[in-house]
Amino acid sequence: MAVKQTAGRESLGQFAPEFARLNDDVLFGEVWSREEALGLRDRSLVTVVALMAQGLVDESFRYHLTTAKHNGITRGEIAEILTHAAFYAGWPKAWAAFRMAKDVWADGEGGDGKARHQREMVFPIGAPNDAYAQYFVGQSYLAPLSTSQVGVYNVTFEPGCRNNWHIHHAKSGGGQVLLCLAGRGWYQEEGKAARELRPGDVVNIPAGVKHWPGSNSELLARQFAQGAQEAGHTVEMISLAGRDIRFCKGCLACQTTGRCVIRDDADTIVQEKMLHADVLAFATPIYYYGMSGQMKTLLDRANPLYSADYAFRQVWLLACAAEEGDEVWQRAAAGLGGWIECFPKARLAGVIFGGGVTGPGEVQSGAAMRQALDAGRSL
Ligand SMILES: Cc1cc2nc3c(=O)[nH]c(=O)nc-3n(C[C@H](O)[C@H](O)[C@H](O)COP(=O)(O)O)c2cc1C
User: Fold this and answer.
1) 217 CB less than 6 Å from ligand 1?
2) CA pair distance 99, 107, nearest whole angstrom
3) Is 341 exposed, middle or buried (0-12, 13-18, 19+ CB in 10 A)?
4) Which of 31, 94, 254, 317 is 20 to 30 A removed from 291 (C-alpha atoms)?
5) pLDDT tens-digit map of 291-310
6) How many angstroms separate the alpha carbon of residue 204 from the centre of ligand 1?
7) Alpha helices per DSSP H over the chain
8) What is the distance in A from the centroid of ligand 1 to the CA of 286?
9) Cα(175)–Cα(54) distance, rounded to whole angstroms?
10) Which residues touch 297 (CB under 8 Å, ≥6 apart)?
11) How many angstroms is it from 75 CA to the middle of ligand 1?
């Protein structure tokens, strides 16, 4: 949404009130705000190029670069935009613009997401949280900040990582205080809506309160994984929550190159995990009597495997839904079955269904948990 502009009146309201009015009310109030005709991101792009083409790299250019960043133009995109414009506007103007753009996008420079996260946070991220890995799904990191008087630990969650459900037991006092230092996360108590956490947020968790039970489909996946581990297999759980998984473009380049042209988490999951796994188990909530959109998108993006020497022979479906009955999960199984048909060396080995569950963790009281464990053990 366009921000109400007051810069004109603040700077020139006394000296040139009409110019200030035109700036705040017409240029920003009417032109910039016609978002239905052209989005803010595109308006920023046009403005930055127009200013750069004139060689205007003063504070107003910095303002528009900052606004462009705010409107979603990434570091990679601004580099491409200025490089492209350089051929039409002039090389030295691009040099001047780059100096300022580099400054505005400095926080996105170098390193991976972990390095960027560290720059936002005063405390260390610490080491991989291997000692407590069994209490998490996904990768977390642990840095002890204080181990005397009161224990204080900095726990960092990678995107998609979450705690298993747990309770802090205590005869008196006890509990836990969560301080959100950087990034964005979620906290949920049993029976309550999940709460978004932003830097500066404080959560007091009294002793005895059950929190983060985990989703139903994830609980089934964890059971299956545990069974498979007990049977001596190496298991890797990958949560699609919070992952960057974009839609297949249908370009079919992967059928020639063996790899998707889109470099995102789906590409990594397909190339580094799915291609080499002997067994694939997909866990999903039932959405509208089918599989979830995340799962379907990943299946589409697994198209490079079609012409590859994939290792999987068994494919399992673990599903949860609010309703009970075979007709609730059968369309999800049929959808997955359609995908498996394209991989003649593989078969749908089984379906585990937890029906009649809605709230997080409810599946734990049903037979599906045991079935998922046994299915994992049977591998
Ligand atoms: C968008 C949406 C669509 C859903 N569609 C169905 C459905 O068609 N049939 C059903 O029984 N439950 C449906 N549900 C309920 C979920 O399948 C159920 O709450 C499930 O336990 C959630 O699993 P999770 O905890 O792994 O997210 C739907 C839920 C959502 C959010």
Assistant:
1) yes
2) 14
3) exposed
4) 254
5) 999 999 999 999 999 999 99
6) 30
7) 7-12, 17-21, 40-53, 59-70, 75-89, 91-104, 113-120, 216-230, 254-257, 265-268, 293-301, 326-341, 368-377
8) 5
9) 60
10) 245, 246, 247, 248, 266
11) 38
Instruction: Say what the pLDDT of residue 149 is.
Output: 83
- Sequence-distant (≥ 6) Cβ neighbours of residue 116 within 8 angstroms: 107, 108
Which amino acid is it at 300? D
In this prediction, residue 213 carries a pLDDT of 60
Instruction: Return the CATH architecture of domain 127-205.
Output: Sandwich (2.60)
Cα(215) to centroid(ligand 1), Å: 11
Residue type, 318: L
Query: What does the alpha-carbon distance between residue 304 and residue 298 come to, in Å, rounded to a whole number?
Result: 11
Nearest CA to ligand 1 atom 7: 288
- The CATH superfamily holding the domain 38-120 is AhpD-like (1.20.1290.10)
323 lines ligand 1 (CB under 6 A): yes
Tokens of residue 347, six digits: 């078969």
Q: Which two tokens stand for residue 27?
A: 């240029």
Question: Which helix (DSSP H) or strand (DSSP E) does residue 109 occupy?
Answer: none
Are the beta carbons of 371 and 221 closer than 8 angstroms?
A: no
Index of the ligand 1 atom closest to the CA of residue 360: 25
Q: How far is CA 40 from CA 34, 35, 43, 53, 73, in A?
A: 9, 6, 5, 20, 10
Q: State the CB neighbour count (10 A cutoff) for residue 79.
A: 14
- Domain borders along the chain are 38-120, 127-205, 217-377
Amino acid at 14: Q
Instruction: Give the span between the Cα atoms of 46 and 376, in whole angstroms.
Output: 55
Cβ contact 279:235 at 8 Å: no
CA separation for the pair 172, 59 (Å, rounded)? 58
Residues in the chain with pLDDT values less than 70: 1-4, 107-112, 160, 191, 193, 211, 213-214
pLDDT of residue 175: 83
Q: Cα separation of 295 and 291, whole Å?
A: 7
Q: If you classify domain 217-377 with CATH, what class do you get?
A: alpha beta
Tokens matching residue 121: 């946070």
φ/ψ of residue 69, rounded to 5: -65, -45
One-letter identity of residue 297: T
Q: Cα separation of 292 and 245, whole Å?
A: 13
pLDDT of residue 116: 76
